[in-house]
Amino acid sequence: MDQEFEKRAQALLVGAYDLHMHAAPSPFNRLLDDFALVDEAGQAGMAGIMLKSHYESTAARAKLVNQHSDSSAVAYGGIVLNWPVGGLNPYAVENALKRDAKIVWMPTRDSQNSLYAGDMPGDFFSRKGITILDEDGALKPVVFEIMDIVKKYGAALATGHLSPEESVLLCREGVRRGVRMVLTHPEFDRTVVDPQAQKELADTGVWVEKCWYNIAEGNCVAQELAEHIRIVGAEHCFMCTDRGQGNREHPVEAMLRFISILLEQGISEEEVTSMLQDVPAKVLGLVS
Length: 288
Fold this sequence. Notes:
This protein is an alpha/beta fold. About 45% of the residues lie in helices and about 10% in strands. It is built from twelve helices and eight strands. Helix 4 packs parallel to helix 6 (about 140-155). The longest helix is centred in the last third of the chain and has 15 residues, at about 270-285. It starts with a helix and ends in a 5-residue tail after the last helix.
């Protein structure tokens, strides 16, 4: 990183949130455990992190970390509706939210859409893909049940690795029902959503996730992602790393690189602050 941009990035990281980090314990290869991850975030001056696991709720894990870590950063939990929690399982959703989970993701690795592209690294069982649509292309009744539970607890519902068509339909219906909605990494090669469609959803109140992973793994270039932020509006986006993989850089380092690269692309410090602090706090329900 350029030293000037790195220094500015370090300052902007203070008070930031990262709502997409992976940690051990996990069935997949992870670099750090929950405690090490939140400790590194605290040392960098970050306000909080989201512990994301594809195959279990992290709500209880986050509570334990917060009770037993001296970090100034707060850990938050969520749940992803893949097969190990029963897929589209409203009971798993209610259980996680009752334990203060903040985000519910629709299926990721186990979504029908994701499996069309084949297994992701580390997948270890064969399964039928999960879709939120019935045979007529309409949302399944259980999706409405899940939406109602998410709304009751004031949590956010994210699209996960659903297809673009499923994601747009879910977001529109969620907004219509008063659910706080998140469009998950629309630059990821399995979940690409056109930037104009991103903007249309954002204009209705959907928050749009922007991931360092998608730049680092070659799903898009920095210039493209920065342009998408300009199209959607930084006030509708939040930055995250989607890091924690065992053979990659530490998540905090990834966020520093992400900030620096966006600054190089002409995204302002005010816009970065909004995407690191203001919007994530809204996604978590900490502010209205």
